[in-house]
Amino acid sequence: MNATADRLYARRRLRNGVVLALSGAATLFGLFWLVWILWTTLSRGMAAFGPHLFTAMTPPPGQEEGGLLNALAGSLIMCLLAVAMATPVGIAAGTWLAEYANRRALGETVRFVNDILLSAPSIVLGLFVYTLVVAPMGGFSGLSGAIALGFIVLPVVVRTTDEMLRLVPAQMREAALSLGIPRWKVDVQILWRAAMPGIVTGVLLALARISGETAPLLFTALNNQYWSTDLGKPMASVPVVIFQFAMSPFEYWNQLAWAGAFVVTMFVLAIGLLARWLLLRNRMSHD
């Protein structure tokens, strides 16, 4: 009996060791490529990085001087406008799901549709906005680019708000309602305040995601070589400039593409660190 148990135990230990070894090898394999990509982006991007990126416009073909000022401004405008449009709608929808439609068939249906939108390819969203906005307007515009990016932000904010509000203890709702506080005030002044760190983290992660999106902007905002803050006209953006300059035969354009990739990578890294700091701060305040 003991011999049989020992054999079973040895077999389980062997299987456990094999699985752990394979898991570790898979992790190292993925990390190797990730580090290689980051190192290539940082090394080549740093070589082309300089003050001219923030003071000069994108150069025309053949010119050896230029920067990314108009592209950086266009990306900033469209990303902030997308967040401004999608965040209120996403918070309201997430609140409805968590507080008024939780465990109901309609709420589960909306969650399912939101998950589909969350995983939808960005190029499909860009094509949808092209049909909905660009074609009727008769041209590309920064506004249509912001709308396309807003469709990417929206499901992230809805999902985050829904999850964060459902994590708020039910005792807080019951205590507030027992005092005669209206339901909308409970949502706004108590539940939102309790879930705000998580909601803000979701908004920041959505901002980090759209900062590098190229496909939807190709269908909506297109590009503009010159300085433009007119939302009714084509607008430059860093991802589209990277896409165009990386495929060009001009060496200086290739260097600007690497510099743009470096700027986007640093921005995403900063947003990610800020989001993690907010989550850590929220956990420490609850401990």
UniProtKB/TrEMBL annotation:
Keywords, comma-separated and alphabetical: Cell membrane, Membrane, Phosphate transport, Transmembrane, Transmembrane helix, Transport
Protein's cellular compartments: Cell inner membrane; Cell membrane
SUPFAM superfamilies, sorted: MetI-like
Domain ABC transmembrane type-1: 72-275
Pfam family, one: BPD_transp_1
Transmembrane segments: 17-39, 67-91, 112-133, 139-158, 190-210, 256-279
Source taxon at top rank: Bacteria
Protein's membrane topology: Multi-pass membrane protein
Protein family (similarity comment): Belongs to the binding-protein-dependent transport system permease family. CysTW subfamily.
Protein name: Phosphate transport system permease protein PstA
Source organism of this protein record: Arenimonas composti TR7-09 = DSM 18010
